[in-house]
Amino acid sequence: MKINTVSFAAVLLALFSFACTLTAQDLLSRDKTEEADSSMVQPFPAIDISKELGNSGTLINASLKKQLSPELMDAFTSESDSLLSLFNNFLGDSSTIRLEAAGRRQLDLVTQRARFHLSQLEPFQESLIKVTGELENELSLLENNRQRWQLTLEQPAGDEAVVSREERIQATLRRIDSVRVLLQDDLVSILGIQDRLTEMRVNLQQVLERVRDQKTVLGETLFKRDMPGLFRDLGNLKNRGQIRLHTEKFRQSMRTDLELLKSGYTGSMLTSLLLFSALLAFLIWFRKNYSRLISGGRLELSKEHRIIINAPLASAIFLTSLMVRLLVPDLPDTFNDLNLLVVIFSMTVLMIRIYGARFRLWIVVLVVAASFNTLYELAYHPGILLRILLIAIGLTSIWLFAWVYRRQPFEGLIKNTLLYRFFRTLVAVFLILEFLALIANLAGAFRLAEFFTLLPLQITILAIAIQILTRLADTLIFLILSGNYLQKLNVIRDEFAVIHRKSLWLADLILLLIFLSISLDLLRIKDAVFEWGRGVFTNGFSLGEITISLGNILIFFFVIWLSIMITKMMRHVLEKDVFTRVKTSKGMPGTIVLLLRIALISLGFVLAARVAGMELTNLSIVLGAFSVGIGFGLQNIFNNLVSGLILAFERPINVGDVVQVGELMGTVKSIGLRSSTVHSFDGAEVVVPNGNLISNEMINWTLSDSFRRMDIRAGVAYGTDPERVLAIMTELAANHELVMKDPPPRAYFIEFGDSSLNFRLLAWVHMENRLEVESDLLVGINRRLAEEGIEIPFPQRDLHIRSDATKEPG
Predict the structure, then answer these.
(1) CB 657 within 8 A of CB 590
(2) pTM of the model
(3) Which residue(s) pair with 766 in the sheet?
(4) What integer pLDDT is reported at residue 399 of this predicted model?
């Protein structure tokens, strides 16, 4: 069997890759052995004892500076005692102890407080870990130094250098021991604090586990009755203690949440206030100056953009309130509910401005329902008053969804028919849930009634907030891209519509994922869905030492896709904005872009393999096997890839050159890694493998310049003065404005033909004008020869017919 050169080289490449892998592993193992041998403690050489004594003194002084001061130890102890006191109070609280008897709202409050305490614990533990690491490092250095001095003293007798310095060495050992004792005392104290905090952390995590278990139990008993029927419970309205109980519960909740806010959220609230002030100031300034900040002419603000720009206060409040909810998700319940009310009122202003009077009544009723919902959350304590408030929320929600279903106000706003049908179906489902909630409340299934009543309203408010956010994102992206500074970039100016559309698509995708995450949380299935998804993406199967899972596969292809997208973006920026402003030699921009594509895509592949969990040693084996495949089955592809690299470095052709490959002639449009595209003069785009451009004969008409010699031939009748014909042809070419003057055009009398005297005109013209100039000169020569009375002959043949006299007539 015949094996060509490429196959043989590929096999050698595979063997080389495998050998390199083994060699690297052997070297690594040897390096580790040598490192282990070199790490053994050795005595100090006698000649270096004086110098090393000085180094040891420096080390001792540096270690002394690492000793914790009494003030710092008191601060650590005081802070740990304070945290432990707060944690013990929380763990000893009745609501934490009796989780099995708590409702979902109480469980959410316990979860919130536990996470708050954990957030207080983490930075303090990190600072203790840092101090512990520094102390352990110093103790290790001291111990190593002490061992070396001890081995130095144990040298064989008779070493004068050691004997003469024995007293100084002993003094150094005593100083090392004293410093080690001090640092070890500090380390023991810090480790004791860490142990207590770790134990408390475990207790807090156990509370969170108990809360999750209890929520699972509540979900399983959601459809069971947990209160008497509504009409039986109405008798409790005569009990005046109900109102006092609700009031006391509300005050207690306010006090608890206010203490939490003061103790751990002051910085977050101050940051939010500063953010709101800065955002409001910027929006007001921008409203007054946006006309001169955006590029005029072809870019115009839409009516919706102007509406949002002219509502700076509502936009600032809306954005800041949402940021608080996203950045501080464990905000105390009372302030979380108040924040929701602020979001709703600012959202209402923006909705009325955007959607107009058509939705005004519906928006007002929505605000009423949302206000009832906030009052419900603030005054939460299961009882007859809360059940009546829940009925009021349900009736208001029924009116909201019935109005939307009957009036169909979104029919013209939702363009997609399938999406609109889904929206109508969802509204109908919400109506059914609200009616079921009323029945459950009457029957005494309070938790089921609460779930069915609040869920549709909360999802509706969330969907409207996300919709308003998409409008704000659209306006923000449009204003940024249309700014005077970005419009100076050619890639932004030329691709404005595409960049705006894709940026908005990315923003919408992020907002959609946020909507789905919050919706799953409202449905109380977020943890279960995420756990299921985590199992789907992480569970896989093993092939030898390689574990393959769906998550690894998706990550692998995502990273490669991302590297390709980044490559395309950088190519556009380089071609449109960098190379148009930087002077380079011909063909250099194409070479740089091609090499950059190769580098980024190769880096993306290696990074994708690494992120997906593939070891680089395994990757080398895969590449070795792949090279064998190249040798036997992918020779042409590999040949084209190498030819692409040759084209990049040698640059025999460049983008824009006019080339001729066989019968194909056209302009080079692009040079890729595997193939290049040639736009033929007939209008077809022909994909030519790079191997054909390297291995076959190719004519590049415009490699060094774009001028081409034109060859025009003509014949005149015998008897014509040749010098006159030469003068006419030279004169016409020299007087044509598109013919080059240097070198000048020349005419030649080349031969005596069968029926004419033949002449040849040579002239240089630009490649793009060749056909036009050739046509002009032919027409001109024909006209001048006719004016001069010079005949242009054409081939003639005389036919002579002879009779045969020997043949008898007849």
Answers:
(1) no
(2) 0.66
(3) 707
(4) 92
